[in-house]
């Protein structure tokens, strides 16, 4: 057993960390994340040049990574910088294109020439592929996808839709052909409502259920790693603040009640890191049920740990933690809102309950 | 022990309901229900409406424009206001400065200031916290130095809520650096029009503006503006914080937030069924309802004056009240799933609402209400108060 990252992954992680620290500091992040394009197109192109998107795809599909640990390596750094670039949407799209042999698209996305996003949630179908109502008719799609991450800047939107006969198909819509309503999210970065009304669509597969589940699980592992990165930073900020803030004639870090709270959430961060590693490993194994269980367990724990860390960090900072100007508040928002993406704590708990052997008879 | 309201109290409840039905516009109630920011005119109009009825400052003595209500009436009144989604009145003049002047003010201060609070001519804000004096309020440094018939004030206050709408501020200032820190603090009233004052907005976590920094540079204030004696500000501050805290329990507001949460859970779907039918989510709602039910009773016990631990009860209510409210906000945000995500000003794009209108601010309100356990004496400070009483040191 060896928990050391491979040399290649260490290099990708290090160079991404250096790049983001240098080129994507929090002031810049907050400038681009909430207005305008809700991200920085120039920085996206540079991330592609650095090979970050290629790291998300396997060699046989045209990249040079693509394993669970490649995803966690990239997204942990995204989380440390709470980078607002549309990495999640493109990750899921890359996985879906790879599953359907779309080499041309993959090449264009890895090169930074094109961007894609994946629409799955609907207002009455959140984290629920069985309730999707968007449907195909001939070579068109009709329906509405809600909160499509990265949909605001995508050239292509992949859409999960009913293909008939109870099957879930995968379609590609040109963003230019759909009604795309873009907006900033409360924790920064962009999303879009995608309105489809007999919109021209290309069918990638009439039954794409397994590929969609796998792409969503890859996205969940990415979010777990992003949360771990964000939690690590927020912990250091909180510790530094407690040591620097003087009240009652001493640094408040000297109050044992506060020390214990920081220790408690530090323990949860280590638990979160561990379960993310567990889920990343399972992502690459063939056993779909074991994978789905591990991923649900990870995202459930991440949801709980993220909430604890975000709320405790804000509370221990006092008023400063409530301000927009203090970067910690944006980390706290990101941690809370990660739980809303790709199924929240309760959704993951439902999955974990269904897939574990809790209910099996003795 | 009789836990029922008397028929007189029930009649009073009906009177309040009738008043709200006739005087609270649907438009304003909807704004409050949907968690939207109220503008200055919204707040002023509601203030004037309550004033016309004589219900604006029910806790003040009748001679100053208050009511003869007992604590049960006050409780019913607050419960009905919250239930009807009436705006909360701005507390700084009504619940903070008013009671302070009534207890510590000169006859002249009472006669000139109290009517202007009621009429809305004066909008008061609070100058307590400083960048270096939050939980440790007694370490405040803003100086007021006597100069003839005036004081000259220099320093900085922060977290001044709704200061952008105010024309007056009451401040805790340091008038002595001798002896115990608490003994060198005074309570003084300042007109915000006075030269040398600058108010700067602070943007909050969710993107809204409701607090400010206030800078004082050689601000000249008449000595007659001091409330109480010089250096007795700490006594006044402690008295005032007691008043602030009982409002923070917010049983009525939490009850209303809980019923909105239930309505939302019945409306949104998870796995093809209303979220309210999901046992995991429903269990969490039921749990917070249990806590709220208990707090309602704790609050009534305190109001009727028979609760055991008198001094620290308001601290307990502040902790429990804010934690319950935050738990409801948390579930209200979660109920939306992915659709909680849009930035609050962007929840309707074109003709498309992303989340139900009444819930579109749920994530923003969750983030904003993290303040509840921080302001008005953080929950950590409230625990210190209870611990001090429990252990006697």
What would you note in describing this structure?
The complex is a heterodimer of chains A (362) and B (393). With 362 residues, chain A is an alpha+beta fold. Chain A has 3 domains: 7-110, Butyryl-Coa Dehydrogenase, subunit A, domain 1 (Orthogonal Bundle); 116-207, Butyryl-CoA Dehydrogenase, subunit A, domain 2 (Beta Barrel), CATH 2.40.110.10; 210-355, Butyryl-CoA Dehydrogenase, subunit A, domain 3 (Up-down Bundle), CATH 1.20.140.10. Chain A has helices spanning 7-23, 26-33, 41-49, 68-80, 87-99, 103-110, 209-244, 256-283, 288-317, 327-338, 345-355; strands at 116-119, 135-137, 140-149, 156-164, 167-174, 179-184, 190-200, 202-205, 246-247, 250-251. A 4-stranded mixed β-sheet of chain A has the order 1-4-5-8, with helices on one face. In chain A, strands 2-3-7-6 form a 4-stranded antiparallel β-sheet, with no helix packed on it. In chain A, strand 2 (135-137) and strand 3 form a beta hairpin. In chain A, helix 1 packs parallel to helix 4 (68-80), helix 7 runs parallel beside helix 9 and helix 7 (209-244) packs antiparallel against helix 10. The longest helix of chain A has 36 residues, at 209-244. Chain B has 393 residues and is α+β, with helices and mostly antiparallel strands. Chain B folds into 3 domains: 7-89, no CATH class; 122-231, Butyryl-CoA Dehydrogenase, subunit A, domain 2; 249-391, Butyryl-CoA Dehydrogenase, subunit A, domain 3, CATH 1.20.140.10. Helix content of chain B is 46%, strand content 16%. Chain B is built from 12 helices and 12 strands. Chain B has helices at 7-23, 26-33, 40-53, 71-83, 91-104, 107-119, 233-248, 251-267, 279-303, 310-334, 362-368, 379-391; strands at 124-127, 143-147, 150-157, 168-174, 185-191, 197-203, 209-222, 226-227, 269-270, 273-274, 348-349, 352-353. In chain B, the strands form 4 sheets. Chain B has a 4-stranded mixed β-sheet with strand order 1-4-5-8. A 4-stranded antiparallel β-sheet of chain B has the order 2-3-7-6, with no helix packed on it. A two-stranded antiparallel ribbon of chain B has the order 9-10. In chain B, helix 8 runs parallel beside helix 10 and helix 10 packs antiparallel against helix 11 (362-368). The longest helix of chain B is centred in the last third of the chain and has 25 residues, at 279-303. Chain B starts with 6 loop residues before the first helix and ends with a helix. The interface between A and B is large, with 54 and 55 residues.
